[in-house]
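Objective 1b. Sequence-to-structure analysis of Response regulatory domain-containing protein.
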Amino acid sequence: MKFQKTLKVLVFDTHPITRKGIRMMLENMTIIANVSEATTDAQFYQHLSTTGFDLILLSVNEPDTFSVGKLSAQLGRTVLLYTEEGAENAIDLMTMGGGACMSKKCIDVELREGITAVLANRRHACTYTRAMADRMITQSIHF
């Protein structure tokens, strides 16, 4: 999918290698982007309050870190990236309207699919996330 306009993208992750990898992936997807980066919650919310973004890649590694109220208007444009520690939080944000939910264990092809889905106003969950959600549902069903 090729985009005609320059997209405003916000990347929030505390790890420089992850942010660099996301930038490289966007370039390889032929997405022309003006990328802003945040490495702390304060920076993330500052960017979120001052700029309208077409795409947000949000690393949800720590439980209970994010304010749903501040994120709610942006969730549909958000790709939630998580490690095992943040999985439940990421799935909760996805159920509240997140655009895509992606484990950091997923391969880059799946991350590209998630980004493309969000930019096309569709929702997406990677294979790992779908399997984990199925397990959570199965464990919560009592007969």
